[in-house]
Amino acid sequence: MLSGKRIVLGVTGGIAAYKAAFLLRAFQKAEAQVRVTMTPSALQFVGSDTFSSLSRHAVAVDIFPGNQSDKNQWTRHISWGEWADLFVIAPCTANTMAKIAGGFSDNMLTATVLSARCPLLVCPTMDGEMYRSAAVKRNLATLRGDGIHILEPEAGYLASGLEGRGRLPETEMILEECRAILEEQQLRGLLSGKKVVVTAGPTREFIDPVRFISNPSSGKMGFAMAEAARTMGGEVTVIHGPVHIPKPGGVDTIEIVSTDELFEQVKAHADADVIIMAAAVADFTPESPAEQKIKKNDDASSLKLSRTPDILSWLGHHKREGQTLIGFAMETENMVEYAQKKRESKKADWIAANSIADHNSGFGTDTNTVTLLGENVRQDFSGTKKDVARQLLDRIFNTG
C-alpha cells in the first residue's frame, strides 16, 4: 500500500523529533518517496541536514528562506501540497496542532497543510497533563471535524520524568495507520450519492426512573461503520443510543434512548439506499414501568416483560428495490448457524456476526473478529473496528 506513494513528513519541535528519522527510513523501506518539512522549533532538536541526507531532498522550513538562489522556494508549499499522496506530521506539538485547527500558516509546514490535497495524519505528542487540557481537547475535536486523521499518543514514561499520555506511537503503528488511510482513499466513491443510515450503541428500557434494561454496547462498531461509509462518499445519518465516545465527524447524528424511539427514527429514514443496523437493541421492555423509584422493601419481586419491535425484520419486510440492508448479530454459541437463520428470516442482504466469547471481539473492545454472511457468501474479517468496517463495506459494495 505504501510502495510508490509520495509522502510529506512534517516534523515539529518536540523531544520525539528524533524518532521522525526512523519513521522516514521505514517509509523508504516500504518503497515510498518522502519529502520533509520542519518547523523552526524542530531544528532545536534535530538538524535539517539529518533529514535532507536521509530523504536525499532539501528540507523545507521557512516560507522565505535566506538563500534566494531558488526563486521558487517560497511556493514550495503549493507544489508539495499537490505532489503528496499523504501528509504525516509526527511528532505534532500542541502549538502546531492549534495552528492547524485555527488555519494559521506562519511557517512552511503549516502553509503546506493548507495547500495539501491529500489526507493528513496528525500524531500529537506532549508532556505532563497537556494532552488532557481543555484547549487541546477543543483543537482535537476541530481537527477531527475537519476530516483530519488523529493517531492518539501512547501512555508511558515522558521526557519530564512523569508518567502520562503523550508519547509518539511506535513506527510500525504509524505505518499501519498510514496504510489504512491510503486504503480508505482507494475506497472513496463506492457510496457516492447514496443515503446511508447507521444505528449504533445500546437502547435502554426503563424499569423505573433510575433503573433500566440495557447492554454494554459502546457504539464503537456502529460509529466505525458510519465513518467508513462517510469515507466512501455516503451521506450518512447515525441514529445512536446513549454512548460515551466521540461522535464521528462529517455525519448527521440523532440521539435516542429506547427501542421504540429507535424504531420511529428508523422508519422515518427507511428510504435510505443503505441501512446498517449495528445498534445493540434491547429485545424486551417492562410492560408497566414504575413512575417512582422501586424501593427494596416493596413487595414486587418479579418483572413482567414484553418484546420490543423487531426493527431489522420490519426493514427486511419493507425493503425497497435497490436498497441494501446490513444487520449485525452477537452470539455466544453456534454463531454462524444462528446468524444465517437471522439473515434469512429477517430478509437482510447481509449479516455481520461476531461472538462475545472472544475477549478481543464484541462489546467495548477496539478490535473485532466478524464473519460476513450473504447469499452464498461467508468471509471472515479481523482487526480494529475501523479496519473491519472498511473491509465489510469494501466486500459488500466493491465486489458485490
TrEMBL record:
This is Coenzyme A biosynthesis bifunctional protein CoaBC. One of its GO terms (cellular component) is phosphopantothenoylcysteine decarboxylase complex. Catalyzes two sequential steps in the biosynthesis of coenzyme A. In the first step cysteine is conjugated to 4'-phosphopantothenate to form 4-phosphopantothenoylcysteine. In the second step the latter compound is decarboxylated to form 4'-phosphopantotheine. Catalyzes two steps in the biosynthesis of coenzyme A. In the first step cysteine is conjugated to 4'-phosphopantothenate to form 4-phosphopantothenoylcysteine, in the latter compound is decarboxylated to form 4'-phosphopantotheine. Binds 1 FMN per subunit. GO terms for molecular function: FMN binding; metal ion binding; phosphopantothenate--cysteine ligase activity; phosphopantothenoylcysteine decarboxylase activity. In the N-terminal section; belongs to the HFCD (homo-oligomeric flavin containing Cys decarboxylase) superfamily. In the C-terminal section; belongs to the PPC synthetase family. Residues 191-397 form the DNA/pantothenate metabolism flavoprotein C-terminal domain. It catalyses: N-[(R)-4-phosphopantothenoyl]-L-cysteine + H(+) = (R)-4'-phosphopantetheine + CO2; (R)-4'-phosphopantothenate + L-cysteine + CTP = N-[(R)-4-phosphopantothenoyl]-L-cysteine + CMP + diphosphate + H(+). Pfam families: DFP, Flavoprotein. Keywords: Decarboxylase, Flavoprotein, FMN, Ligase, Lyase, Magnesium, Metal-binding, Multifunctional enzyme. It comes from Fodinibius roseus. Its cofactor is FMN; Mg(2+). GO terms for biological process: coenzyme A biosynthetic process; pantothenate catabolic process.
